[in-house]
Amino acid sequence: MNVQLMWCKNTVLLFLFLGISCGSTNKLEVKSEKAKVDSLVDNSNKIIKQVQNNLNIIVGANQTEAYLPLLQGKRVGVVANQTSVIFKVNSEKLEVKSFTHIVDSLFSLEIDLKKVFSPEHGFRGTEDAGALVKDGVDSKTGLPIFSLHGKHKKPSKEQLKDLDVVVFDIQDVGVRFYTYISTLHYVMEACAENNISVIVLDRPNPNGNYIDGPTMEPEHTSFLGMHTIPLVHGLTIGEYATMINGEVWLKNKVKSDLTIIKMKHYTHNKPYSLPQRPSPNLPNDQSIKLYPSLGLFEGTTINAGRGTAFQFQRYGAPFLNSNTFNFTYTPKENFGAKYPKHKDILCYGEDLSKVKTEDSVTLQYIIKAYNNSNKKEVFFKTESFTKHAGTTKLQQQIIAGWDEKKIKATWKTDLDAFRLVRGKYLLYN
């Protein structure tokens, strides 16, 4: 039985038991809670119904013959979320047919699994962005789950003491402020400090065919951006791990004992449709392509589609000029967003769900929103925006009225320098 479904079943049974104990008055609450649980399961763990255009790409997790020998006789930990799966494909219909979670697969193969580590959004990918994720237990395997987005963002020595190797398998989307690469950094660092090997099962980067955006300045590093890289880095998670090691970015200049299980048939120029949501608020190709640009709104008071079914495919706020923006929507509590910006308030903005996306970061949306805001004084959440942008300059340039072309010209020197660094760590053409 699927892990999510088992969890769902057990949760529902618990609520039913409580309903019997407390009387009939709780029946509606039980029904409501069951609906919420079912919604979480459905949204976080289903195959995205879109054409999978590169089924010939074989991800690292599917290459069991390459990594199982490295795990035999070893005590193993896994860093995983809902994307950590082995795919089964239907080549005739050009779609992923089903999948098996990597933890379930290793457990069934009698690998000595000791524990699971979960990143932002949790092991099953159901938590809000930025929400603290609690430790827990996997209901199917009985394995302890330790959160890397709660009390600890870095595995502790105590958590690692009974491990020989840690397997890292998480789908990335190639954007600096997407925190899974920060989790990767801390896992590599902790394992290096405790003489534990790391195996990264590589996956495609759906934004892997370009680099763009402002480069992180060292003084603004945080969990939203730990390295001096552009907003879009153009590397797979495996290539990024290799760069962390090669550029000696880990604390005290330690180096990870690192193995990358490479993909087959992948190139950076091949478009790739993710078969699963990489996180709750990235539901499809369109949102993933727009995320580098609309993600900058996270550091402002503008809603970027959270609380709707079109996350990162629209933006808006009550104080945007209604004469300029005739598209309206109202954010509501939903899967992935319990408290979206401007919850239950009519927002004026722009629908981007059908626009043609480009392989670049565009500033046209945030510039347009700022220029047509009736509350410019509260538009930016300066500290948060700086963490997302990686620099104070971008906010200053937008406020000063710079156009997109002029702003992007200031990125060129840093992007050219990064291209040279990136080239050293490419594992694919």
Q: Could you walk me through the main structural features you see in this protein, from its secondary elements to its overall organization?
A:
It contains 13 helices and 14 strands. The chain is α/β, with parallel strands linked by helices and 429 residues long. It has two domains: 60-261, Rossmann fold (3-Layer(aba) Sandwich); 285-391, no CATH class. The protein has a seven-stranded mixed sheet, with helices on both faces. Strands 12-14-13 form a three-stranded antiparallel sheet, with no helix packed on it. A hairpin with a 6-residue loop joins strand 5 (136-137) and strand 6. The radius of gyration is 22 Å and the shape is globular. The protein starts with a helix and ends in a 6-residue tail after the last helix. Residues 1-42 have low confidence and may be disordered.
